[in-house]
Amino acid sequence: MTESYESFITTNLGEEDAMSSKQEQANGQTVQSISSFDSLSLDDVRRKEADLIRESVATSGGTLHDITCREAARKTIAQLAFEGEHLITYFVKRTKNQEKMEDLCDEAGVPSNQILRLPSMEDCDCFGRMPPSLAKALLERIRDLLYENGYHTKRIHDEMGLPDCEYMEKRKEIDRKTENGELDQYSIVIAHHNHVRISRLFEGRVPVIDGLNCGSFEKTFDDISNVLDPFLASKDSLPLKDTDELLQYLGRGEQKEGLLRWFQDEGVEYLTESPDIDDLHHRQAPFIVLALLLANPRSNGLWSYNLGDWFEDSINVENDIQRRVVYKEGQDDDESDSSFDGGPDIGVLSTADLNSSQGIVALDTDPIERMWNTIHQTEFEERSVISHDSRRKKLVLDKMDCSIEQYNEDSTKHASSFKTIAPKKDPAILEDICDTISGKPYLFSTKKAREEYQGIMAFAYTDGGQNYESFIPEFPDQDHFALFNSPHPGDHYLKRWAAYSNFTLKKKGGTGTDKFYEAMREGDAEIDNESLGTQFYHHFVHNRVLRPILSIGEREDSSPTFHLNHCCVPPWLQDAWGKEKSVCYNRGKKQSLLDFLEKVEEATKKEILENSDYTSKRGVRKAVNDLEEEGKLESWQDWDDHGRKKYALLD
Predict the structure, then answer these.
(1) Whole-angstrom Cα distance, residue 140 to residue 479?
(2) pLDDT digits (tens, 9 = 90+) for 220-235
(3) Is-contact 408 565, C-beta < 8 A?
(4) For the chain, which domains are there?
């Protein structure tokens, strides 16, 4: 624990919690709790998180904040930009979030001429209006080929002689200001995570990284041959004719010394310089070839290597953008897990070295410190105002006044494929929610689930919605939200990211809330760490469901209710609901039952069977039990009719 952080704890949280935090650090934890939590309001939590961010901005080193009130944290950054004591560079995913920070800065009083938002590819419209001198089809093919090979928009403009658009005009102006050292005139520079590798954005400024955007640092390839063959074919001096021949060298030790020597002698230029755009091979290809020659096997079907080690040991070259490569050779020996299949052949993580900056402030929710360290090559110190699970739960249920209703207690509903989406039951649950609230909920779900819902008319029961994967804190002013399906990226994704962090991850068993993973270092059984493996799983699945809960719960004067059709929320919140709700979803048969009872007013199960679409006594029995539990039917013993059990609609 840094001295300034300890001072913050003592000043803001009291001597008792400062001692508690020291003890937690001795036990391998770097977060602390708040004493007398029950007496704190939501505003108190916001203020304490804001104070902790302010304390971190004023210190050096990397600090990773576990944030519960994200909107308040962003307002704190805007306020710091207004005060002007520290120049801020703020990194966040998606143009809408960048525009939101611009608005917050404007509300905080930051003059517009002191706010600079870096343009992104979304601002470029050149590829929508083709120059008349070039055929549209040809230009699109050139564009696609260059994008496929890893070249960015600015270089494509330069190489192809495209006319300056608004995007290019902004880029040229920013490049000029950056080269002339004129960025100091801006209190805040707002950028995308893709810009993190631009070291000049860190000079004399405090970088604030909002969220862990894995996609900005990782490139995956479904077919390794399409990436490597053009490079191998273009290098006559490299004695490899194609990818198939390269893969024969996996794990063959001394037999590949000559190939490694080629990279030390001739190939280093392809690794340390930007290749000629006319080469028409992917920029990552030489790195992948070298990594596969050096790769080490893992016991879950992966091979991996950190090229930073080779740069330092073999050619004594410092490379700020290092690469970690993971190759999927085949199925995990210990599993028959189909979710391993279908992943990309290879993944390349291009990390950014931020050690040259004076300090870094990172914002995340329930973060994995190891992942932040790996991506940014920085040792972060994790900081949190609320660390105890019981207090996190109280924050959501009491301070934010959230309610949770749950329909499938044991189902994870991982919607990484259409097979987990219930085309009858999911719309029925949404309709039941509509009946309960006399309105329509706002729907959060996965991209694939929303595509399927379009075909089964599920959106007729919703008031808009968005995907977990592209979550933006914008939603209607209402209090009912449906959180359907969970965004599992596939076990191949979890395993690949564990490998980047030098761990081997395996799914060990369990279903529903009992599902767990194991992470271990290869060849070192004593570092077997079940909790880290499960933490990876929770981070990519449960925390994505948690984000809209916290964001909506943070609103003023709101008492939101969240309707879940799965169990994938963080473990500390999984008992926040009462009894699982049951919903009628076989609409055809059950509707015929309801229509019959509406006509006759009361009936026995035998009469229902004879006058509805049901064909078995068991089906009728289950239907009337479900409808009774939902409060739509009542039953009684009719002693005037020999004690037969009768059923009728409830008013």
Answers:
(1) 45
(2) 888 889 889 988 888 8
(3) yes
(4) 3-121+179-214+357-387 (3.40.50.300), 223-342 (no CATH), 391-488+541-573 (3.40.50.300), 491-538 (no CATH), 587-649 (1.10.10.10)
